[in-house]
Amino acid sequence: MPRTTLVLAALLALPATAPAAPGAGGDPAAGQAVYQQRCRLCHDRGMMGAPRLGDRAAWEDRLAKGEEALLQSVVRGLKGMPPRGGCRSCTDEELADALAYMLKQVR
Ligand code: HEC
Questions:
Q1: What pLDDT, in 10s, does the model give residues 28-84?
Q2: Which atom of ligand 1 is nearest to the CA of 82?
Q3: What is the residue with the minimal CA distance to atom 11 of ligand 1?
């Protein structure tokens, strides 16, 4: 095979071998259950200043940070929100899914 073809083939193979998109970009359908079990306690009613589910005004500034930064807030915790939104057993993927579900309600 000519060299250029080899290089091309390697480039084309890249997306397939790259790891699944890390961090943000969760699945909102899967996230609904996580939200119901783990996040709604605070986010349904806006406990301690938590942005309420579906409250566009409350989410506007937060959305401007970008999804990746929001996920970081969940993972690390933010003021009244404990690390991992209080869900120690949640995987990063479950947290991203729950976030995707929440963001879908205000987009
Ligand atoms: C114990 C209450 C509580 C629980 C449970 C909770 N949160 Fe929060 N969350 C908060 C509070 C309070 C804030 C606002 C923090 C601030 O900016 O003062 C917040 C903020 C956020 C933000 C915005 C972060 C930012 O950078 O602006 C996201 C996203 C979020 N929560 C997602 C989640 C997810 C997903 C879960 C479930 C896995 C969850 N939260 C569970 C209390 C909670």
A1: 999 999 999 999 999 999 999 999 999 999 999 999 999 999 999 999 999 999 999
A2: 1
A3: 50
Kindly state whether residue 100 falls inside one of the protein's structural domains: yes
Task: Name the residue at shortest CA distance from atom 1 of ligand 1.
Answer: 81
Q: Count CB neighbours of 94 within 10 A.
A: 22
Q: Structure pTM? A: 0.85
2 domain residue, yes or no? no
* Nearest protein Cα to ligand 1, atom 19: 50
Residue 56 lies in domain: 41-107
Task: State which of 27, 39, 71, 91 you would mutate to test the pocket of ligand 1, scoring each by most atoms of that ligand within 8 A of its C-beta.
Answer: 39
The CA dihedral of 68, 95, 74, 86, to the nearest 10 degrees, is -170
Query: CATH number, domain at 82?
Result: 1.10.760.10
Nearest to 87 by CA among 27, 35, 49: 35
